[in-house]
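Aim 2, interim progress. The first record below pairs a target sequence with its C-alpha cells.
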Amino acid sequence: MIFINNKYTSVYYKIIERSRNRKISGYTEKHHIIPKSLGGTNEPSNLVRLTAREHYICHVLLTRMTENNNKAKMVHAAAAFICWTSKNHARAIKINSRVFEMLKKLRQKNLIEEMSKLENKKKSSDGAKKLWSCAGYKQQASSKRKLLWKNLEYLEKMKQRKRTFKKVTINGIEYSSLKEAAERLNLNPSTISKRCSSKHEKFTNWNYI
C-alpha cells in the first residue's frame, strides 16, 4: 500500500474528490493523484486540476501519508514545489513557518540517513579490502578453503549442486549446459546464470533444470 491509512490521507482524498466534481475558472495546476515518483501515470484517471493553494496543501499532506523511501521522495518534492517558479505558474503562496520548519527538518533527516547508508557501505568495502590486503588473513582463508575441499560431505554437496544446475531451459528450449546456451545465444555464461536466477518477469522462461 502506497499511502498510510491516516487522517492526512483522508483529507487528501477529500480534496481530490472535490476537484473532480466541479467546474473551476481561473488559474489551476495539474496534479498527479499517485505521484509519478511513486509509480503514478499520466492517465486521465490519475490527474486532477487544483488551485495553487490546494496543490501546495496536497504536497504537504503527501509527506504525512507516506513512510520510508516514499516519504523521502515526497519531502523532496514538497521542498522543490515551494521553491519552483516558472512563467507558466503564477503562484502566490505564503509558507507557514511551522510547515517550512517541518519540511526542512524532514529533508535534513532524510539526507543524514542517506549519507549514513553510503558511509556504512564505504566502511564495509574498505574493511573487506583491508582484510584481504593482510597476508595473515589470506593464508588463514586459504587454509580453511583447503580443509573444506577435503570434507567428503562438502564435496558431495558441491557435486549435487553441479548436477542440479547443469542444464537450463530458455523460452522452452533445453540446453545441456550454460556454456552451450551461451554459445547458441551469443551471451556470457554469467549473464545466462543471472537471468535464470532472476525473479524479473522478463526472465520467467529462463530456468535451471
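The second target in this work package is listed in the same format:
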Amino acid sequence: MTTLENEITIAAPREKVWAILTDLGALDAYDPTVANAEVTSAQLSGVGASRKVDMADGRHWFSEEMTLCEPTERLAFELTACNFPISSLRHSYEVESVGEGTRVSQRMEYTVKYGPLGVLMDKLVLRRQSDAGIKKFFAGLKEHAES
C-alpha cells in the first residue's frame, strides 16, 4: 500500500473550505485535473453520497463514495470503480482553523493492481503522478476558496 500525505493553508474561513470540499458535483470547478464531476447518488453530500469523475486527460475516470463526514472537521472517500491501475484507494481530509485561515490535510492510501509489476509502476510513475495531481488539486482549491 502506498501512502501520500499533503497539506495546504488557505486564507478562507473553515466553513467556506468545507462547503467546497463537500460539494461533490463541483470538483471540476477548481481541480484542473478534472473535466467533469457528477453526483451519482440521491443524496448530494454526507456519508453514502457518491460521484463519477472524468479526468481532464479524456481517458481516465473514477467513481467514489463519501465514507466519513464529521462536519467542518473530517471527510473521507473510497474508490468504488476506476480505469486506473488501482485496486483500492481511500483519501481522507482533516480541516482545521488556523488563525483566520484553514489548514486542509489529506492522506491518500492506495493499492495498485498487477502484483509486483504494479508495485514497480507505482515506484517509477504512479506515486509521482498521484502526488503531483494532489498538489494541483490543492492549488485549485486554494485559489477557488480565496477568490
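The chain is about 25% helix and 45% strand. This observation will shape the mutagenesis plan for the next reporting period.
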